[in-house]
Amino acid sequence: MKIWKSLLIVLMVLVNLAFAQPSFADRPKFSKNPDYIEVTKALKELSQTKDAQTQVEGLTPEEIQKRTEELTLQKYALETGINWGQCENQTGNTIAVYGKRPNDEDEEDAVYDNNLYFLANGQSTKNNWDCDGIYLANDVKVANFTSSPNGQGQELTGPAALKIFDGTQLVIKTNPDTAAIDLNVPSVKVLNSKKANWFIPDISQALINTRVPNAPSNQS
Q1: Alpha-carbon gap, residue 173 to 93, rounded angstroms
Q2: Which of 8, 15, 98, 148 is 20 to 30 A (C-alpha) from 41?
Q3: Edge-to-edge, what's the strand order for the sheet holding 169-174?
């Protein structure tokens, strides 16, 4: 009787392994993640710049070091399986953020690759919920904006969609002196309808402030 029980247990283990194997095989590798490829490339370029003791136009050695540290942590986050970003709103206004649709929604009928949600002031998007980026209203400016990790800061005016790397916690603040938006990360991507299937309307910040906050948040 004990032999039959032992054989039954072994058979159940083998069956479980047989069904589990495809899921392991289909698991995507972080090395194929576009964010990981871009972060790794930018980090390599900055490292070569430091080794050669050359100056990147518009960047001080302190800024180069800060960006290198930020990219190093982003690279590590992607290598350890963190495939989501987080957005924190400290602007004093409601902001619009981009994120994935709920799993129970029918993706076949979706017009865009993700949804536009509204995040109240003082809130951050929920852990493990992937905040892909933020929407910049047509009357809002970002100070010292860079579209690449090794780029020089410039001013950006909306409307625009700003995408962040996976593994990033983006903190959005309003500069009290200029009223422009300040971002805490060294770079974000600017997307338009030709680069990504995202909803990028031409609307004002005042209209966004009238929306009911509905982004999954840690305070919900």
Answers
A1: 10
A2: 98
A3: 86-90, 169-174, 181-183, 141-145, 154-157
In 3D space, the residue among 107, 112, 127, 91 whose CA is nearest the CA of residue 215 turns out to be: 127
β-pairing, 169-174 vs 86-90, is parallel
Return the axis-axis angle of helices 61-79 and 34-52, rounded to nearest 10°.
Answer: 150
Helix/strand/coil (H/E/C) assignment for every residue in 9-61: HHHHHHHHHHHHHHHHHCCCCHHHCHHHHHHHHHHHHHHHHHHHCCCCCCCCH
As a whole number, the mean pLDDT across the chain is 79
**What radius of gyration do the chain's Cα atoms show?**
22
Write out pLDDT tens, residues 2-55.
Answer: 555 554 554 554 445 444 444 444 445 777 777 788 888 888 877 776 665 555
Cα 140 from Cα 24, distance rounded (Å): 45
Q: Which of 35, 60, 40, 39 is nearest to 50 (CA)?
A: 60
Contact 141, 173 (CB under 8 A): no
Q: What are the percentages of helix, strand and coil residues in the chain, rounded to 5?
A: 35, 20, 45
Q: Give 147's contacts (C-beta < 8 A, 6+ positions apart).
A: 187, 188, 189, 190
Burial of 121 (0-12, 13-18, 19+ CB in 10 A): middle
